[in-house]
Specification:
Elements: E1 4-7, E2 10-12, E3 18-24, E4 34-39, E5 46-51, E6 58-60, E7 68-73, E8 78-83, E9 92-99, E10 113-116, E11 120-124
Parallel strand pairs: 2-11
Antiparallel strand pairs: 1-3, 3-8, 4-5, 4-9, 5-6, 7-8, 9-10, 9-11
């Protein structure tokens, strides 16, 4: 079982920045793809970004390309999501997730992920 804890959410004005962190409890984390997802009220969960086990491959949703950056520190079992130029439409609960198997390739499809954190709220408004 993997426990994930997100932090770093909050309220920010449009154009601002936030850095989300995801802490994992299991030492095998470095061998799995990690993803960030978000869900706004009344909307389906959306894959935002994901990163391969060694950090060499990243994928981003078109809506966040050029604004968000995902990174990981395997030594510390941490994954980060740097969010810049935030827009009101980025408002959502953001969750990190660990892929079901070590064989999973980077994907923004939520079905590939087996372990989820509780999420952290991000609000972007004037």
């Amino acid at each position: 079982q993997v426990q994930l804890v997100e932090s770093g959410g909050g309220s920010v004005q449009p154009g601002g920045s936030l850095r989300l962190s995801c802490s994992a409890s299991r030492s095998s984390l470095p061998y799995h793809v990690i993803g960030w997802f978000r869900q706004a009220p009344g909307q389906e969960r959306e894959g935002v970004a994901c990163i391969s086990a060694n950090g060499g491959t990243t994928l981003y949703a078109d809506s966040v390309k050029g604004r968000f950056t995902i990174s990981r520190d395997n030594a510390e079992s941490m994954v980060y999501l740097q969010m810049n130029s935030l827009k009101p439409e980025d408002t959502a609960v953001y969750s990190c997730a660990v892929a079901a198997t070590m064989a999973t390739v980077p994907t923004l499809s939520s079905g590939a992920y087996a372990y989820w954190g509780q999420g952290t709220q991000v609000n972007v408004s004037k």
